[in-house]
Amino acid sequence: MKLNLTLLASLLAALLLSLMAGRHWIAFDNWLAGDLQSLIVMELRLPRACAGALVGMCLGMAGAAMQGYLRNPLADPGLFGVSSSAALGAVISLFFGYAVQAWLLPVFALSGAALGMATLALLAGRSGSLILFTLAGVILASLTGSLTSLLISLAPTPFASSEIVTWLMGALVDRSWDDVRLALIPAVLGMAALLRAAPALDALTLGETAARSLGVDMARLQWLIVLGVGLTVGGSVAVAGIIGFVGLMVPHIMRPLVDDRPSALLIPSALAGAILVVLADSLVRMLPSGSEMRLGIAMSSLGAPFFLALLFRMRREVA
Amino acid sequence: MDLRFDEISLTLRGRPVLHGVTGALTAGEITVILGANGAGKSTLLSCLAGLRKPDAGLVQLNRQSLHAMPPQERASLIGLLPQQADIHWNVNVRTLVALGRLPHCGRWGLGAEDEAAIDAAMVAADCAHLAARKAQRLSGGEQARVLLARVLAGEPRWILADEPFASLDPAHQLDAAACLRAAAAQGVGVAVVLHDLTQAARLAHRVIVMKEGAIIAAGPVGEVMNPAVLEAAYGVRVHAGQDAEGAPLIVPVARLP
After folding, report:
1. pTM of the model
2. Which residue of A has its CA nearest to B43?
């Protein structure tokens, strides 16, 4: 509880910082002045910061749930191919030019995620077996990944293919309240599904047999995970494209703070994910580069040194 | 109150693992299940825990089909201690033991009753002093006691334990056996898969002996645990005797040709 409150306070601070930060620093006094600066804060930066927080929450919680479900601290919400199905949906809308209507791209991405979830559930069957589920995810991820590459290579114009490639890199540029609204419903439903799975994730600490003997219905748990991860990741891809490493990094950092309990990890990971994305997005806006650095790239470049540090620590422990 | 299994058969990957197995566990008694490796003991235990549905036959708890029972209700009545000691996250020992309360606790976490059951279970399994330690850092024997405490914490009416003494030192083997006896004395029905014949003879009220997926002998310990049955089950010659205090002493001596 104390941890969650601290994280919530930090998230609010990060949001405030992100309203001030950007090409032009806008101090708090000018937010409500009614001039151009306040317009930038209220119409551009506020929805963008909220979208970032929502995306971070989704990815952080989905990552924590995935790691708990697979009992693998290196599992990532992208592993099951839901994010690449959502991306494929979005890429189809860009390929055929439907994305001229701003709201169509996220709708296509969400439909892609939904189709991906359905395929995943169909392929994995009703046994609730983790191995079948992971294999189904790998199949889905490789299929959607190759279809996405195919579309890029077949793009009608160089402009379309560059648009697709840029979109895939993930960003929060020019996100409006419409984007936030569109992602909010799947995000909330998805997080609710994951929170319902929480006690079962704890039971899995003892392995599948003991968890089942404790009353965990593995097939129901798989449904909750598919729904939860699908909706949260689908929603976040719809808003921001593919942003990696959040779902992998954040649960790692939070785990020791919650006594390694998978259920206790969900909410702190959501809050810390939001903080990470909001801060990283503020950072890319402040970098003095010609065009803004894509958020997805920034996040991956944070991911590499993080895991390098982790690797060195583990090497010391192994030695 | 009994946990009854009637004519249960199960085929796994084309191999018949159980065929036509019939018997019952009785509340307040310890039933030891004996048999060579691959005789179907663990599979029988997982059928009795409701984790595997037999292809044919019925498992009934108080005349109600076990497989028709909601998982949570079943879990609150039957506690299973699997052979494999899985601890996937490095949680505190007390957190791990508290998982045994999952079938009982509501959405709002542990109540005072749950906390009391957890404390009692940790004392019974001699791991109260480990409460604040990290579970993955414990020795194998300490982990086995913690996992036993996890089962006891659920206050099940039935305890099914698959080789619970395998990684325990002699002192803790005696402690764990005392734990199971105490549970049985309180009316809990206990089924234990064991390989140590002396231990089995001293712990059991009743014995089920399995061979190749079928029961070859079952009944009170004094009737069943004789050299002829054990030789048929394991293919070894056994020496059966008594120690100075008159307690049974059964030792495998040589493989039969």
Report:
1. 0.90
2. A209
